[in-house]
Amino acid sequence: MDFQLNEEQQMLQDTVGRLVRGEYSFEKRLEFSETEAGYSEAFWAQLSELGLTAVPFSEELGGFGGGGVEVQSVMTELGRGLCLEPYLQSVVFGGGLVAQAGNESQREQWLTGIASGELKAAVALQEPQSFYDLNDVETRAEKSGDGYQLNGRKAVVIGGHCADLILVSARTSGDSRDADGISLFALSPDTAGVERRSYPTIDGAKGCDIVLNNVQVGADALLGGEGQAGAVIEYQSGRAIAALCAEAVGVMEVANELTLDYLKQRKQFGVPIGKFQVLQHRMVDMMSELEQARSMAILAASVADAEQSDERRRILAAAKNVIGRSGQFISENGIQSHGGIGMTWEYNFAHYAKRLITINHQLGDDDVQLERYARLMQAS
Amino acid sequence: MNMNYTAEELAFRDEVRAFLDEKLPADIAAKVKSFRPLTKADHQRWQKILSAQGWYATHWPEEYGGVKWSPVQKHIWDEESSRYGVPRSVPFGVNMVAPVIIKFGNEEQKQTYLPRILSGEDWWCQGYSEPGAGSDLASLKTRAVREGDHYIVNGQKTWTTLGQHANMIFCLVRTNTEVKAQEGISFLLIDMNTPGISVRPIITLDGEHEVNEVFFEDVKVPVENLVGEEDKGWTYAKYLLTYERTGLAGIGLSKAALSHLKQLASRRIKNGRPLIEDPTFSQRIAKIEIDLTAAAISNLRIIASVEGGGVPGAESSMLKVRGTEIRQAINDLARRAIGPYALPFVEEELADGFDGDYLLDELAAPLSANYFNNRKLSIFGGSNEIQKNIVSKMILGL
């Protein structure tokens, strides 16, 4: 057993870590968040210059050939900086969908751009009624001419407000919650009938809802077989879950470091508040939660690129469940340990707390993951 | 043992309902029920209506404009007003400084300030907390040095809730540095328009401006604004805190929030069914409802035990801890109920007069911000850790 990163993986993580520490101070992060894109184009350019946007893609696609562990290394450091760039959306999830479902010409058309950072993708898989179930698709795609016509509404597309390519799920057959009959389309946001309603998110990023009103796309927009996208989406959302877990660990690490520093510095009743046993025990609990989360993030990374199986599904559900719970624990108890200062916008802790809570709202919260796990447990 | 309301109490409840049916402005109630922020004008409009009814200063002695409600009547008022969406009174004037002035102030202070609190002419804020003090209140550093018929005040206060609206602040200041920390504190009433006072907003994690820092630089305060005796302010401060903590349990508010949550969960869908029928979610709601029932009965037991008068002590600390935990748990569920829509933060939807299409649902718009904002419940009014210290000392003798 070896839980250490190998030399190359360590170098990768160090590279990202240095970059984040150098370019992503908390003050800058607040500024990036308030721009129209909601992140730093310059930082994104640096990520791509260093080849980091190519990490998960195979060498023949111009990538780095990295897997779950490499993505984990990048995401943990991006998490430590609360980075707002659409790495998860574009590189991990969007890129993963194109790499798995796309044919050769589609990969050539889009993946090279995603890997070089020139093209930013977003995934539009959720709908207002879907509540984390990516098979719950009511958006319809009807055959029309030699292509398709899309109608429906996609919900909470993080990064979709400024993406160049939007990957949309739509139903070509079946009932609204069937796993079969879902198709995946690659869409330019400029296509007639695509309407984006953009908004900031509570954790400082940006996203949009997308209304599709008689949107006409060609047959070449279809990624993979018609009605066959359910499995691809499930598989790639698993990779995204592993990446989110890694990000969460980075966020939790800093949240705990900040809290511990505060307990040592802040004095009340003549002593540092860290001398109070109730706060000591809480801090110990926060550290234990982080260790549990870190273990599960490692486990999730180890199956991210494995062949699909119930075992992979179970591990990913378990990991995301632990991350959701530990993230909320660290967020809430960290605020409480800081007292009023932890509630303020100007102090960075609050923003770490908000990211931890919102991670639970991406790709299924801890309740949903627990239900998934229980179902898989019964099935085995 | 009789857990039913008496006929008189039921009649009182009907009177309260009739009043609220008739007088509570629908737009204000709608804002309260959906956790939207109230403006200063909203607060003032409602306060005038309450004052006209004689129900604004319910625990003041009648001679100053109060009304003699029993603890049970106050409880009925709390329940009904939460249910109807009555704005929570801004407590700093009516519930905090007024009882101190009534008990420890001189006749002139009573004549000056109490009518102006009733009429809404004065908006008070609280100058207790300081950076570096927090729960260790007695370590406060703001200095007041007497020069002739004035005090010269220098220092800084923080977490001053709604201080941006206030024209008066009551402050704890250090008037004696030679004695034990608690023995050199005085209680001053300060006009916010005095030269040398500046107010700086603190923006909270949800992006809201609710609290402030207040700076004092050579602020001249007339000696007649001292309440009680110099250096005896700690006694008055503690008296005020018992008033602050009563009611922080917010049982009525939790009931209202729970009914809001159920409404929300009936509208949201999970696995093709209303979320409220989902096994996991309905169990989460059920557990909170049960905890809230227990806390509500505990609250009633405390109310019944102080029916004869007096202010509850350590029991209200226990209730503050449980009550705030329950309300935070309801806020947590409300945010969970909207799933991925917990992420978008569409500020326009919270603004006065928004008439566009809601991204998801009018109930959903403020939920994440409200969850984060209410993390304060376990911190303010004496953090829950401090409340537990009080209980262990006063009840357990530890």
TrEMBL record, chain A:
Q: Which residues form the Acyl-CoA dehydrogenase/oxidase C-terminal domain?
A: 242-375
Domain named Acyl-CoA oxidase/dehydrogenase middle: residues: 122-215
Q: Which cofactor does it need?
A: FAD
Q: Which domain of life is it from?
A: Bacteria
Q: Which InterPro entries match?
A: Acyl-CoA_Oxase/DH_mid-dom, Acyl-CoA_Oxase/DH_mid-dom_sf, AcylCo_DH-like_C, AcylCo_DH/oxidase_C, AcylCoA_DH/ox_N, AcylCoA_DH/ox_N_sf, AcylCoA_DH/oxidase_NM_dom_sf
**Gene3D superfamilies per record:** Acyl-CoA dehydrogenase/oxidase, N-terminal domain, Butyryl-CoA Dehydrogenase, subunit A, domain 2, Butyryl-CoA Dehydrogenase, subunit A, domain 3
Alphabetically sorted, this entry's keywords are:
FAD, Flavoprotein, Oxidoreductase
Domain Acyl-CoA dehydrogenase/oxidase N-terminal, which positions? 6-118
Similarity-based family: Belongs to the acyl-CoA dehydrogenase family.
**PANTHER family in the record:** ACYL-COA DEHYDROGENASE, ACYL-COA DEHYDROGENASE FADE28
Task: Kindly provide the name given to this protein in its UniProt entry.
Answer: Acyl-CoA dehydrogenase
Origin species:
Marinobacter qingdaonensis
From TrEMBL, chain B:
Q: Which cofactor does it need?
A: FAD
> Would the keyword Oxidoreductase be found if you checked this record's keyword annotation?
yes
Start and end residues of each Acyl-CoA dehydrogenase/oxidase C-terminal domain: 231-395
Coiled coil ranges (UniProt) are: none
Domain of life of the organism encoding this protein: Bacteria
The record's listing under InterPro entries reads: Acyl-CoA_Oxase/DH_mid-dom, Acyl-CoA_Oxase/DH_mid-dom_sf, AcylCo_DH-like_C, AcylCo_DH/oxidase_C, AcylCoA_DH/ox_N, AcylCoA_DH/ox_N_sf, AcylCoA_DH/oxidase_NM_dom_sf, Mycobact_Acyl-CoA_DH
Name all Acyl-CoA dehydrogenase/oxidase N-terminal domain ranges.
6-121
- What keyword terms does UniProt attach to this protein? FAD, Flavoprotein, Oxidoreductase
All copies of the Acyl-CoA oxidase/dehydrogenase middle domain together span 125-219
Return the PANTHER family for the record. ACYL-COA DEHYDROGENASE, ACYL-COA DEHYDROGENASE FADE29
**So what family is this one in?**
Belongs to the acyl-CoA dehydrogenase family.
Would you tell me the protein name for this molecule?
A: Acyl-CoA dehydrogenase family protein
